[in-house]
Design brief:
Keywords: Coiled coil, Membrane, Transmembrane, Transmembrane helix. By secondary structure, the protein is an all-alpha fold. The protein is rod-shaped and about 180 Å long. The C terminus is likely disordered.
Length: about 450
């Protein structure tokens, strides 16, 4: 039973030998084709030079892969010692790493290069979207101060009107130094309000321009066709969007508000009391001191709010870096695991065939070692043994006959003289007739 199994395994190995060579050739050719496509995406130069360089490289890869796996399929299954098999496994591991380095990543670039480039463009759009939103928020942060400035302006204006009409502060109606000071503070707050409103219009215009740039970039990412021309247009749009983001950061009015708030307190100049009576002058001094305290408090509130806005982290400068399909596949490898698996399988699938051959040959050796010697001898080997035995017997017989002949010749050559005193020198059918006595 074991002899039959061994024979069937031998027959199966002989049957799949041609298929093994064909499979190795097809896999090596497929790897070479995809390597060619991957190499073309990273080479620069004239079309002719790129074509020939890619052909030469891909041909070298195909030949190398076929030769490497052919050697492994031929030798590894027949290596039996542990040290030799360990050495062969180490050689196989080194060869697999070299194949991955020279072919597999280029195969992945050919399989998923365009998708990886689109992934790169899509993530770049997301990054620029975040930058634009952050710059817009920083620019609009000063808008949150507008209600406080408007309330301060209205309060100063109402106090000025009340003082003018009813003397609510000094007890004396009319436009005096107190009304003048209150009107001055109201005018300064109005200038800050106008500056914030003007800044809002500019920020809105820049933000809308940035949104249009982003829409164009998104359209380029999802557009059909070859990805390289779209990547070039995308790069131009990215540069323009970077300019928009920089302009947004420069249009923030927070620094201006910070300086204006300091001017309110540090640059406060109270007018000289213009009352005709000393009592009115005293009341005016007291009211203007109150106004000074109120302006200082308002200045501190605005300064603190402006400092909080200015403490925000600015938008980091971003530069779009174009990538080749091979570089994009490496950077976004985790997003294209199926493509990488297919690219690696094309190159390393022959390794599975090598291990199958090793397992089968190992099974054959174990079956044959367990059989008696007589069962391990095949008919062909037996016939060869018999033929060799016949040849040995024939050769031994010939040698024996030759020795007998030589012995007979040696005996007949002993010195004998005939009755006439002549020596007999030879015997046999071809001997010369003996001559008689001379008369």
């Amino acid at each position: 039973m074991a002899l039959g199994e061994s024979h069937r395994l031998h027959e199966s190995l002989a049957a799949v030998e041609t298929m093994t060579r064909f499979a190795l050739a097809v896999l090596a050719l497929a790897s070479g084709v995809y390597t060619y496509l991957g190499v073309r995406s990273i080479l620069d130069g004239s079309p002719t030079s790129v074509f020939f360089a890619a052909i030469i490289y891909s041909t070298s890869v195909s030949v190398g892969i076929y030769a490497f796996w052919s050697y492994m399929a031929r030798f590894y299954p027949h290596v039996t010692s542990r040290s030799s098999r360990t050495a062969m496994l180490a050689v196989m591991a080194i060869g697999c790493v070299m194949i991955l380095a020279m072919s597999s990543w280029l195969n992945a670039a050919a399989l998923a290069g365009s998708a990886a480039l689109e992934q790169h463009l899509a993530e770049t759009v997301q990054d620029y979207t975040g930058d634009l939103d952050q710059a817009h928020q920083n620019a609009l942060a000063a808008q949150s101060l507008l209600p406080d400035i408007q309330r301060a302006k209205e309060r100063f204006a109402q106090l000025a009107a009340s003082e003018r009409q009813s003397g609510a502060l000094t007890g004396t109606t009319g436009s005096g130094s107190v009304v003048s000071l209150l009107s001055q503070m109201s005018s300064q707050m109005n200038e800050l309000e106008n500056g914030i409103n003007a800044s809002r219009e500019q920020v809105t215009r820049l933000f809308e321009e940035g949104q249009k740039r982003l829409e164009t970039m998104r359209a380029l990412v999802s557009a059909p066709g070859v990805v390289e021309p779209r990547a070039d247009k995308f790069s131009s749009e990215a540069v323009a969007l970077t300019g928009v983001i920089t302009s947004l950061q420069q249009t923030s009015i927070a620094p201006s508000i910070r300086r204006a708030a300091d001017d309110l307190s540090l640059g406060f100049i109270a007018p000289i009391p213009d009352g005709g009576e000393q009592d009115l002058v005293t009341r005016q001094d007291r009211v203007m001191e109150t106004i000074r305290t109120s302006v200082a408090a308002q200045s501190k509130v605005l300064s603190d709010a402006a400092d909080e806005i200015l403490s925000r982290a600015p938008v980091a400068e971003r530069r779009f870096v174009p990538l080749s399909s091979a570089e994009a596949v490496l950077r976004y490898a985790s997003d294209f695991i199926p493509a990488w698996a297919g690219a690696i399988s094309i190159d390393l699938l022959p390794g599975v065939m090598v291990f199958i051959l090793a397992v089968v040959n190992g099974a054959i050796r174990r079956e044959e070692e367990a059989m008696p010697f007589a069962e391990r001898v095949t008919v062909a080997e037996l016939m060869q043994t018999l033929a060799m035995q016949k040849a040995i017997v024939a050769e031994a017989t010939s040698a024996k006959e030759l020795r007998v002949t030589e012995d007979v010749l040696a005996e007949t050559e002993n010195s004998k003289e005939d009755e006439d005193g002549h020596k007999i020198t030879s015997i046999g059918v071809n001997k010369s007739p003996r001559k008689g006595p001379v008369t």
